[in-house]
Design brief:
The structure holds 2 protein chains of 2 kinds. By secondary structure, chain A is mostly helical. Chain A has a domain of about 60 residues. In chain A, helix 4 packs antiparallel against helix 5. The longest helix of chain A has 23 residues. The termini of chain A are far apart. Chain B is globular, with a radius of gyration of 26 Å. Chain B has a single domain, classed as Porin (Beta Barrel). In chain B, strand 10 and strand 11 form a beta hairpin. The chains are: A mainly alpha, B mainly beta. Chains A and B meet through helix 1, helix 4 and helix 5 of A and strand 1, strand 4, strand 5, helix 2 and strand 6 of B.
């Protein structure tokens, strides 16, 4: 058990260190040489609408909420809460929040 | 008198006019929200020798959210449940959260542990598709539900697939040494919030959503501590290692005309072998030990015919769940249980559901004795989130 415990601590610390390095590194510089319209075109192809993300993401745990049930300020609070609680990416949570605020 | 009336009128109307002119009614930067959920219902249980039926007193779980800024937030959930003739209260969680960057958030306080997904994401009554938790959760369960400590969590977009993670350290569990409840010697008690030793628990979960539609998630969780007993006691160095595997699939399948939701989680608990004392009726003491390994599993499938032309049928949901729980052989709480649950739900709205469920449980051993007990239950619950 001691070995397992030490191993799990070591793996945990390595994971924290690795995640911190990755999370804190900026990838902004990697895109500076690429023409803006090309980036925009690529992003356009991959982009999902907020409505699509709302349907896919919220339903993973509970039925997707009705946009009209809360006002814009409430949705900002709920979006931040759900981003953390459900471990959503920043992109997902922002797109869903935009959709909910536009459709309520 | 007329002058006084005129002056008062000017002040009142003037104040109103000033307020309407200069108050922009913009929302404040900070916001406080009260959310939560509640449920009530009726239960009928038949275990052969004994039958009972009861209406359930309402359970009420208010959730307080305070958004201080776009990065800083506080969350807390209280729990009020009528149990027997008493009102039981609890603090489910209370923690402060700060978004460090787009991939990392820190939480501190008492928080729900991401050990699998059931306790952290799926247990609230308005989310859980059945009226109760699967075997292996709750009182005497082997899956930790919450802890006091600090956590880092976040998610990465891998260009379609997504990865989410959580690593945390908490005060950790306490092993029951049998001095107060001999029949529970060896059980890990997670609901203790005063740290009685220097050992901390470390754990985490990694979840992978391999498809771009986020329909599927597989997760691995681990939880480990080097000491579960009180400092300077015989149990101080009794360590524990727990792990969980979880799976989720939620997808609209046109061929089936609706949404299929499948969830599963396997929990394993491995506690170091310790020696406990059994007191006989004649006053003699006997030492005993056992291989302290437990596991539990649940698999659940539900289906909502959301593509039906009928509004009534659209709101229906069919659920089936299998769960089992195996406690260590040789322990006073040795148990092998299996449960089958079937349910029919009607969704009044996205957050209010009426659940009708039939469950049959076969228990060998456990607190009730050495034999096999079959218990059938009929449940009618009504849950609402707000």
């Amino acid at each position: 058990m001691k070995t397992v415990y030490k191993l799990s601590i070591a793996l945990g610390l390595m994971a924290v260190f690795g995640l911190t390095v990755v999370a804190c590194s900026s990838t902004k510089g990697n895109y500076t040489d690429v023409p803006n319209d090309e980036v925009a075109e690529t992003e356009f192809k991959l982009e999902k609408s907020g409505a699509q993300l709302w349907g896919e993401t919220c339903n993973r745990c509970h039925i997707a909420p009705s946009p009209s049930d809360y006002n814009d300020t409430d949705w900002e609070t709920i979006s931040l809460h759900m981003r953390i609680r459900a471990n959503l990416t920043e992109h997902e949570s922002k797109k869903i929040e935009e959709f909910l605020k536009s459709a309520n | 008198m007329k002058k006084l009336f005129t002056i008062i009128t000017i002040f009142v109307l003037g104040g109103t006019l000033y307020g309407q002119t200069y108050n922009t009614f913009e929302p404040s930067k900070t916001q406080f929200m009260l959310r939560g959920y509640g449920h009530t219902g009726f239960e009928y249980m038949d275990s052969g020798d004994e039958t009972e039926s009861t209406f359930l007193g309402s359970a009420f779980a208010p959730i307080f959210l305070y958004k201080h800024s776009d990065r800083l937030m506080f969350e807390a959930e209280l729990e009020f449940v009528l149990e027997g003739d008493e009102l039981e209260t609890g603090l489910e969680y209370a923690d402060v959260m700060y978004v460090l960057n787009k991939n990392m958030t820190v939480r501190a306080g008492k928080f729900l542990l991401p050990f699998g997904t059931f306790m952290e994401r799926l247990h609230p009554a308005w989310i859980n598709r059945l009226p109760n938790a699967p075997l292996g959760y709750g009182h005497d369960g082997i899956a930790p539900s919450s802890g006091i400590g600090v956590e880092l969590r976040g998610a990465f977009d891998l260009g379609g697939p997504k990865l989410n993670y959580s690593v945390y350290s908490t005060n950790g569990p306490r092993i029951k040494d049998g001095s107060e409840e001999p029949e529970e010697a060896g059980i890990l008690e997670f609901e203790n919030y005063e740290d009685t030793n220097l050992a901390k628990a470390f754990g985490g979960r990694i979840g992978l959503l391999p498809f771009s539609d986020s329909s599927t998630e597989i997760g691995f969780s681990a939880y480990s501590t080097s000491g579960t007993g009180e400092q300077d006691s015989d149990f101080e160095d009794i360590g524990a290692f727990l792990y969980a595997l979880d799976f989720s699939l939620v997808k609209q399948i046109p061929g089936l005309g609706g949404i299929v939701d499948a969830k599963a989680q396997y929990n394993s608990s491995n506690v170091d072998t310790a020696t406990f004392i059994e007191m006989h009726e004649d006053g003699d003491e006997e030492e005993y030990s056992f291989d302290n390994q437990s596991n539990s599993f649940y698999g659940q499938v539900s289906y909502r015919p959301t593509m039906s032309g009928s509004n009534f049928v659209k709101n229906l949901e069919f659920v089936a769940r299998y769960s089992d729980f195996n406690a260590p052989e040789g322990a006073e709480w040795e148990e092998k249980s299996k449960q089958y649950a079937f349910g029919l739900n009607y969704w009044l709205s996205w957050r209010s559901v009426v659940k009708l469920s039939y469950q049959t449980t076969e228990t060998e051993g456990g607190h009730d004795g050495d034999g096999i007990t079959n218990t059938d239950g009929l449940f009618l619950h009504w849950a609402i989130g707000f």
